[in-house]
Amino acid sequence: MSKPTLLDIAKLAGVSPSTASLVLAKKGKISNEVREKVKIAADELGYTKKAVVNNTKSKTIAVLFHFDSQLSQTWNILRQVTLSLEETLSHSNYLTILIPITYDMSDSEIFKKVIDSRAIAVFSMHFGREKLFSQLENVTIPVVIIINSHFQSHFYTVCADNFQGSYEAASHLLQLGHKNIIYADFDIYQLPETLSDRFFGFYKALNEHQITLSDEHKLHFDINNVTDIRSKFTKAFSTVNKPTAIFFVDDYLAAHSMGVLKEMGLNCPDDISIIASGEVLDYKEPYIPQITGMVTRPDLLGKFSAEMMLNRLKHKPSESYVLKIKQQLMERGSCRKI
Predict the structure, then answer these.
(1) From CA 134, how far away is CA 313, in angstroms rounded?
(2) Would you say residue 29 lies in a domain?
């Protein structure tokens, strides 16, 4: 017979895994009635006490690393962030482990993975789940979220300053003399705030130059549908005031679109300038088109995230805070002056 787990005890006692974990660790403000239920369930299942949550001797920190196909284009960036995390944490003698997850996993599944890993802290790369993070924090496992600003009001977060980055990308086009600019985006999986910040940064730059973004020049694509991309670009370029530049929400969409634009007889940058607000492609690969865009250094994302976590573990601050890293313009020749 397999040994009883934390989830087994929680189910039998009729409580959440985090509550059961707190009771067994003799922590938290839990009523005597609930504590008794958990203890009875543990005894009934033949549970032998062990460290369910924080093992004070452990120096292991987990990274929740997603393996969803919808985000495969981000793996190169996340890999670099993880390497930087590992390097920074190793200087303080912490061991970094990866916990593979997918978005269709339940909170309880991921919570169990973390508990079983004996990790004392967790980084979440891109992945966001408010209830899960609260459960981990409640059992004294601190969480730092990386590259996801959706939960910045409640949890420690390190991400790019997408608003300012988009503002500067749009300003770059405007300084080159472009006035008829297409704004092109798509649904970035699980990152609604990123889309919002990038749009409003772009809009602010146009507004300062008293330029109106027409409905015809605001395009939303199904990135997996080339026909959709082609038809919307065809319509946008059939207007009297033809666009001279395209602002893409990230370089993944830009790369998808460049082949379609070339089929339409539009070469970059001679016929159309292209800039991307976000960068996920690996430009060391020879088959990747060179796209001017805003860059957030993954090594800094990893370094600052690690330092934030080390500060939490050492000083245990009571209030969460957010660090937004400024993006830098990387000119790769896809924009021209007019």
Answers:
(1) 17
(2) yes
